[in-house]
Write a structure and sequence with these properties.
Blueprint lengths: L2 H22 L4 H5 L9 H24 L11 H5 L24 H21 L8 E4 L3 E4 H23 L9
Length: 178
C-alpha cells in the first residue's frame, strides 16, 4: 500500500471512530437499549456488531495478506465502497458471526471493545506491507473486494452504522429522559 492510500485508510478509521464515539456519548441505559421495532437493532447492538465485525474482518484481511497474491482483480469497486454510508436504503443481512448477542452488557465496555479492535486495525494498516490490491475475497453483496477496499470499508461500515444510530435517535419514540 502506498503512503497516500495508507493515510487515506488511517484517516477513514480515525474519523469514523470519532463520529461513532460522538454519536453514543452521554446515552443513558434506556437510550442504549431502545429499539425502533422488534426486528431492528438497538444502539448497543449496533456498537457490538461493529466491534465483532471489524475483529472478524481484520482476521480475514491478515490471512488474505499472508497468502500469495491472487490473479484477478476487484477493480472498479472503489466508488461502491466509498458510497456505502449513503446507501442506507439498501439493507444488508449481517453474518451470523457478526450479529449482536449481548457479549458486552456495559456501554463503556462496548465502546472500549470497539476502540481496542479499531486500534488493532489501525496498527495493522500502519505497519503492514504488500500489495493490498492483489489480495481479495468476496463480500456477500459486492463480490470480490481487494484488501485495500476492505480496509476502506471498515471505516465506511462504521459511518453507515453511525447514520443508523442517528436514525434511531431521531425516532419520535426515542427516550429523551429516563
Amino acid at each position: 500500500m502506498d503512503t497516500k492510500d495508507r493515510q487515506f485508510v488511517l484517516d477513514e478509521l480515525t474519523s469514523s471512530q470519532a463520529r461513532l464515539i460522538e454519536a453514543v456519548a452521554g446515552l443513558n441505559s434506556a437510550q442504549w437499549e431502545f429499539r425502533e421495532a422488534p426486528d431492528r437493532w438497538s444502539i448497543a447492538e449496533i456498537v457490538e456488531h461493529l466491534a465483532v465485525f471489524e475483529d472478524f474482518l481484520l482476521g480475514v484481511i491478515q490471512r488474505a495478506m499472508a497468502d500469495a497474491p491472487r490473479v484477478g482483480s476487484a477493480g472498479g469497486k472503489d466508488q461502491l465502497v466509498l458510497g456505502l454510508p449513503e446507501s442506507r436504503n439498501f439493507k444488508f443481512k449481517a453474518r451470523e458471526a457478526a450479529s449482536p448477542t449481548g457479549r458486552w452488557q456495559d456501554p463503556a465496555q462496548l465502546v472500549s471493545e470497539f476502540r481496542k479492535v479499531r486500534a488493532r486495525t489501525a496498527e495493522f494498516v500502519a505497519d503492514a506491507q504488500g500489495d493490498f490490491r492483489s489480495h481479495f475475497f468476496a463480500h456477500l453483496a459486492f463480490g470480490n473486494l481487494d484488501c485495500y477496499q476492505w480496509l476502506v470499508l471498515a471505516g465506511r461500515h462504521t459511518d453507515r452504522h453511525v447514520r443508523q444510530i442517528e436514525e434511531v435517535k431521531s425516532n419520535p419514540e426515542w427516550p429523551f429522559r429516563v
